[in-house]
Amino acid sequence: MATMTLPETEVKDNKKSTTKYVYSFGGGKADGNGKMKDVLGGKGAGLAEMTNAGLPVPPGFTIQTEACREYMKTASSSKDVERQMDEALAKLEALQGQKLGTGENPLLVSVRSGSKFSMPGMMDTILNLGLNDKSVEALAKRSNNPRFAADSYRRLIQMFGNVVLDIEKHAFDEVFDAKKKQKKTKLDTDLDAKALQEVIAEYKKVVKKHAKRDFPQDPREQLVMARDAVFRSWQNEGAKVYRRINNIDDMLGTAVNVQAMVYGNLGDTSGTGVGFTRNPAIGTKEFYGEFLMNAQGEDVVSGVRTPVPILELQKVMPDVYDQLREITTRLEKHYKDIQDFEFTIQDGKLYMLQTRVGKRTGLAAVRIAIQMVDEGLITKEEAIFRVEPNQLYDFLVPRLDEKSTKVEVLATGLPASPGAAVGQIVFTADEAVKMAGHDTAKKPVILVRAETTPEDIHGMEVAKGILTSRGGMTSHAAVVTRGMGKCCVAGAGDIDVNEKAREMRVKGQVFKEGDWISLDGTTGRVIKGKLGTLDPSPDDPELQTFMNWADPHRKMKVRANADIPRDAIQARAFGAEGIGLCRTEHMFFGEEKLPHMRAMILADNEKDRRAALKKLLPLQRKDFAGVFKAMDGLPVTIRTLDPPLHEFLPRREDLMVEIATFPHAGTKEKKELLKRYSDYGAKSVGDLKRLLSTLLARVEQLHEFNPMLGHRGCRLGITYPEITEMQARAIFEAAVDCTKKGIKVLPEVMIPLVATVKEMANQAAIVRRVADEVFKEKGSKVEYMVGTMIELPRAALVADEIAKEAQFFSFGTNDLTQTTFGFSRDDVNKVLPTYLAEGILKQDPFAALDQEGVGQLVKMATERGRKTRPTLKVGICGEHGGEPSSVEFCYRTGLNYVSCSPFRVLTARLAAAQAAAAETLKGEGGRTK
Ligand code: ADP
Ligand code: MG
Ligand code: MG
After folding, report:
1. Range of lowest pLDDT (105-109, 302-306, 620-624)
2. How far is the CA of 32 from the centre of ligand 2 (A)?
3. Residue 813, CB half-sphere, CA atoms under 13 Å: how many?
């Protein structure tokens, strides 16, 4: 795991001339190549590769990531870095026949960050570096275009001021907007040279005021400052958060690319654009992208002007278009993957500025992988790695129908919770409830907030989707919506939400309550207007094809956690090969069962308890029969009763209030109260008074300070053996009945929260005795197993002992994480955000298995258990069973299966297939990260 300080041994001081810090590219050849992403970053490696391939790339050099790592340690760049940079600059100047920022034909460069993985949050690119009061005039003269020169200079001051000198963007925007107003123009391009010169003068004042220094006139000083700002930006908050979410090593560092400028803003035969070789949203094979004439750099994506679809370029400049298609097709063939590229046209001549593997949705990933196999670009084995397991989720949630209307993206935030949502904007939770209405079919609303808090829950509940302008992937909105399975775009920073005025502003447009927007939680896009939606498509034929390629590689089974037949059927449709966890307590929450369950808990003697359990038996038997039927032929792991009993009773505080207010209650209130407590056997208002105090007494008896460590799990079945007896009876009666009907039943009875072998022996004895009784009564037998959940560190330590009694282990990693860390899962959010921000934990251990710690217990218990019982079946049934990195860990640890929620079964199948295939294929395989 990454830390920010390197071990002493790795801090080498005596490397003098040994390290090559700077790699040049240009003139048809490059020092580096496309494979060197670790060293040159993705952008630098791409520039080198394109140069070597003879493509038109403006020349330059890349300062490699090692220089960044050293900068992190020493907060400065070494003499070697300085010297090599100066040499590379001299080489570039010679090649171009220009000098940086001086002379009649000054060299200008861009300074661009670029790490191994493309990563938002780092320093923005600086263009036109080298311009100063003198060279701007030279540029004006040379280009015979004073407007272009002034425009380039004002852009430099603005970008440099913002990203190097940390001056807020709006300080510059204010000046620019004021100038446009003064000149009564709308577009940037309408400002003439004189107006831009005035802007420059104002910009310099802004710099002086905020940075307390003048804009640096010395080109080399500009370059050094920009370079170091790129290094520092590796540690920006946004960059850190992105790395944490995507599990990217903090020690990689970023490279710096310095590249000769080409100008897309020279006039009407110049322009700039971006594109993809295939459609990254839906995967169709089409040239896809946008461009703008007379524009520079990020104008295309920034929304100042509306860009034009790339196919239009064919009309405007057919030769350039053909060349671009030819080059990008070649790039795609070369990299054997969809390319995301940037280009600039200077006076009719095309330059390539970037190419990288294109990010795509899950849907597109599957389709493109299949296309590329069909085209012979990649093998089926390679195709398996072209889809991130989590991306398969896209097939299980609704999507936007991109063809239904014109798509205008207003902003892009974080893809916090996948799926699509289309609805009318509301700005408060109360309004959301009001506007959604009380019918079962709610009116579609999108709740838009700066950020959400627990007070917004009722609004989030009824909303189709949530949009926030602040907050990250672990913000309240993100976490809650993922839990609800509801679409959410979080942290869309370009949107200015004004909850008081009930409006949001973005891209110069104002949206009010009731306006329609569409959210794509899968890509983070916020789209204007009312798009159509497409239903989830778990039986998409291309998905089937893809899974048919992946599955044969898999060596580990994938099961689902499902408590009721409906979920079991669903899970089976997604390819579950059994049930790894059937939680019986959920079965007791049904309307017909709760009264008996509560009577059982209220009973203060065995006789009454048995009477209540007797009523539960047929109901529970029916539940099990349903699940067995759904899983005909596949194993079903049933866990005996686990939660603390108080979960079935009212809250102590509520009861106290009810008792206190009862004497003063009116007839209507009393009737309501009676209804609420009829489950507990209250038949008349007269019963109520006594019942409430009996209930309170029982609740107080059951009250525990740490219920998660309390009277639960096998401790229940040991103190009240009749509960385990009833459950075992229900299981075996259902099993025998099903078998008689020709259903193949493979029950695995699982005892929870075992810490000692004697606990296990105690419960296993009950289960086996009841099984024998049932088989005798019914004159028929079924094969079954009795095993345990490993969810306490002690159980992992004495797993060899426990395996004497248990025929299988299933790691309950939710509890095992709680008990190993001593974190309560329900309260961990008080500390977790700080722990993540401080880097104390790299990931939420309840989301991704803590392999270092909890993982050791898993490994140890598996080994020790199998020492005693070589045939021991081992699986995992915690949340982690559907998380790709944890699935991979389970594979390496030799588990027989993972079990996860039905909606993660596809993900787990692919993760397990990739884990196994990676061993044989050694595929970095072109993962899309
Ligand atoms: P990002 O990583 O955010 O894409 P880039 O470094 O690719 O940032 O650059 C931002 C914009 O500036 C892109 O549109 C890119 O094409 C443009 N750009 C970068 N370097 C140059 C250059 N030397 N000449 C012209 N445009 C450039
Ligand atoms: Mg950028
Ligand atoms: Mg770029």
Report:
1. 302-306
2. 23
3. 33
